[in-house]
Amino acid sequence: MNKLLLAALLAAAPVHATEWIGFGWASFGDFPHAAVILPATVNGKACFVQLDTGANGGFIPAGQAAGAPVDIVIGQHAIRASVPPALPAGDQCHAGTVGNSFFDNGTLTLDLRHARFAYRDAAMLRDDSEAAPFRYVQHEGCGGGHIVVPVTLPGQPPQEAMFDTGAALFSFAPLQLSMYDALRGADSKPLKAPSWGSEVDCQTSRLTAPLRVSRYTLDGGVLGHCKLGVDIGVPLAGIVGLAGFAGQTIIIDYPSRKWKITR
User: How far apart are the C-alpha atoms of 167 and 109, rounded to whole Å?
Assistant: First the structure.
């Protein structure tokens, strides 16, 4: 082999293969994909956490009391946070919830078809012209932020919605009942859904009209409306969950404020 070519190959930056980690789905009622559950290690103890991009913080411990600071590791990424003084043993070790701040130095990828995820401390979509921008709504004195994306309903001007994996069972959940009534089918039925240790009254139906989210169109899945106030400091039409992206891959590049949906 040509010596110059060999030297160039040896000097080239290595290509990093995606390091996938499997995640679990938590079911609720008739919904098998109600929440994304990530494996985590808390000071060396195997646990799990819920992924909730509707939360701006890095880690919200399960339970009321917080104990000493510990290292919480997901994949190769770690942060220092507090957890309850005593964690349950075995497979029932539910440490809490991770929000956007846990990942906002890099890129989080969710492969919904194969139930796996990956995280890299890199802005992977920075130069990707096919990725769509999002707004990252932050608050003074608080870590992380909220992912806000444009949504457009047929015959209406563009509005904004929050992307929330904590509302995984929904494709779209309007905050106003009038919008839900305009979009729902005849199959609307009540649902009591868990939310931060309590139950909220919701309604669910089929999404009957195509919803444009950034550059992507959701034309099916579950429409919902819950009696739950959402205030992140900007007007929102509703919440975009995961149901409308079933079988697809969602890439969230926090530093570049871009995201991308691929099949």
Answer: 17
Quick one: 171 exposed, middle or buried, by C-beta within 10 A (0-12, 13-18, 19+)?
buried
pLDDT given at position 185: 87
Give the predicted TM-score (pTM) of the model: 0.89
Kindly provide the residue ranges of all beta strands, DSSP E only, lying in 18-75, ordered along the sequence. Answer: 21-22, 24-28, 31-42, 45-51, 59-61, 69-74
Compute the CA torsion angle 234, 240, 241, 244 (nearest 10 deg).
-170
Measured from the Cβ of residue 56, the count of other Cβ atoms closer than 10 Å reads 22
Cα dihedral: 245, 151, 215, 183 (round 10): 60
Beta bridge partners of 260: 251
Which pLDDT score, from 0 to 100, does residue 13 have? 39
Distance CA 172, CA 151 (A): 10
Residue 119 CA to residue 218 CA, distance in Å, equals 25
What is the CA angle 62-53-74, rounded to 5?
65
Closest-CA residue to 168 (of 97, 65, 263, 82): 97
Q: What is the CA radius of gyration of the chain?
A: 20
Mean pLDDT per 10-residue interval, the chain, length 263 residues: 41 57 92 94 89 93 78 90 76 86 96 97 96 95 92 92 96 94 90 79 91 91 90 94 95 98 91
Beta strands 216-218 and 21-22 are: unpaired
Phi, psi of 230 (to 5 degrees): -130, 115
